[in-house]
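call fold(seq) -> tokens
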Amino acid sequence: MDADVIVVGAGLAGLVAACEAANAGRQVLLLDQEGEQSLGGQAYWSFGGLFLVDSPEQRRLRIKDSEELAWQDWEGTAGFDRPEDHWPREWARAYVSFAAGEKRSWLRQLGHRLFPVVGWAERGGYGALGPGNSVPRFHITWGTGPGIVEPFERRLHDLAHRGLVRFGFRHRVDSLIVEGAQPGRGGEVVGVRTSVLAPDRADRGRPTNRTVVQEREIRAQAVIIATGGIGGDHDLVRAAWPDRLGTPPRHMVTGVPAHVDGRGIGIAQEAGGRLIHPDRMWHYTEGVHNWDPIWPGHGIRILPGPSSLWLDATGRRLPVPLFPGFDTMGTLAHLQQVGADHSWFVLDKTIAGKEFTLSGQEQNLDLTGRSWRGVASRVRTDVPPSVQAFLDHGEDFVQATTLDELVAGMVALEPDGGLDPEQVRREVRARDCEIANPFSKDSQVVHLHGSRRFLGDKLIRTAPPHRLEDPAHGPMIAVRLSTLTRKTLGGLETDLSARVLSAAGSAVPGLYAAGEAAGFGGGGMHGYRALEGTFLGGCLFSGRAAGRAAAAATA
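ret:
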């Protein structure tokens, strides 16, 4: 099974890296501890969002964007402030140029297509130099997660038929083979040691066995680590949790399958690679328990529009500008400093039907199935079927005809949560007093009116302003929200050729990294915060760089 290039991890970054190396004529072996049914990894389950700058889709919606504005937003969001941010910043600058340049055309040549309405994630709400997207940049893949995986999966199978790619599924990499090490100087990575796991046909995303049936050594001129982050292991997440984000949650829901365990990062460290920024992470605050789970602790993120009222566990409204969809990490830090593991959305049926989108391809079958009829029915339907299923079956949802009944339901759901019923009533009624006029001192109401000036939000994302206690828009709804584990923002430090660097700053010969294992490039190109649509894009960009560099080095 020896090869020119071994790629460890068959997620999106690994698929892209394998394609690029094989396209250059190299013999590539793609290894993964899961079975063939899990090809594509986390990307398959995603909503398929991509960060693009000054795209035709933006211009059609009269969005004026530029590389200069995007870089201003990226720098303000990332907050680079450490000596170790040299390579992350270089990667970030290169990625923004890629997103403003050939990214869309490169994907389009591979058969990738986009949904025409652009979303506005991470809206910020601070000054011009603060975090957040100044304009909508979230482009949804037509076909969601499977639609982003398919072009590379198809290409890999073509390359396999030509004899350039081989697959080693159920191969768990346990260590790297390092030769030529000398005192004070590391050696060269020349292969991997693997445990071959027993076959397991469990459905994609579900846990598989770890029964070892054989051990192997496989050699190559270059090894690319593309094994993802630590989001599937709550203990690892808590161990890396920084003080600036408050107390780690005692209870979290899980946004990735259990095999996302950070294993590859530790293996690369043992071979001399340097891990930087392990304290930088990205978790969502709008997680709910999946009523029909696939993996253990499976959580789903609500991608909210701007109208829901966001309350902490005591019933107090979150401070400006921590509104739904504005600042994920700012909201996470605030809520954890409050000291509770949950918060609340308060809304009504009209807002849920118009503004609630659920993360994940399985929650958006119209977009995943590329059905224009399904998308049109979403507009005509009061509440999309996936959202209605959570209203009917979700353990985190309360519905009531009056505010008093809603508050009673919230207390019943969290009897020891410290909720102050009178505070909830005060917050809802104060907000409703502000909504009656087109003018307001309430910043969220001002943003709500501003959102509807953007055609995409007005058409499919933002409900007309109205009172939450208006029975015409009922029933009223409360949603208990939990922290949803997702992305590791730090990772293995790499140069712009995706070569893994040692603590001394020199490249570890033969070792490359891509995707989440490399902090999506450089060891953390997002810094402290992300602009959304940049995780899949970071896998694409770093996987491409790693595959091309490894191919060039093995010529």
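The chain is about 35% helix and 20% strand.
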